Amino acid sequence: MFEQIHSSWQNVLVSEFDKPYFQELNSFVDKEYATATCHPNYNLIFSAFDYCKFDDLKVVIIGQDPYHGLNQANGLCFSVNDEISFPPSLQNIFKEIQYDLNIPIPKSGNLIRWANQGILLLNATLTVRNGVAGSHQKKGWETFTDEVIKIISDKKENVVFLLWGGFAKKKGLKIDRKKHYVLETGHPSPLSANRGLWFGNNHFSKTNTYLKSIDKKEIAW
Fold this sequence. Notes:
alpha/beta; four-stranded parallel β-sheet; two-stranded antiparallel ribbon; 9 helices
């Protein structure tokens, strides 16, 4: 899988791909994709890194698993392919952007447009078996993505980390908060949002205010 990831990330992650846990993960993923339907498509597993180069990174959003329905996942957390109906969490993300920045809800839930602006849309687990949520958890992906977060924290400065929900907050324990801007809130899922833990967080305007303060281009959400 190493050859799939963009060269800007290969340079900072090269040692990770040689570790025994990743070799085992690689074998597991190859077997799963050979014997079952998995998501996203094999060539899209590292899309989050391909669309957001390491040098361009400004914002990190952490998700959990890829969507496990057919034709939904495209390798970016919370994102779906064009012409796919918005899952509930993505719908709530767009509603919050509308409330926060008065931006109309878009027609497409494909967030490549965000990734191209320097947002790493990172799932904790990068693959899943069709129809079986969490099926590729605890196989090594979490170790890999923990290391990605740590490397970003160590090697970059002034990155905005958006941590939504308890799972993302735990992943965020590796972030040096003296060097980076961390925003936390509830998960955008209906369960959390309907309890008042999502709407009104203003993370999108706060992100842009911070980026502007450090002379970086704001995100066109």
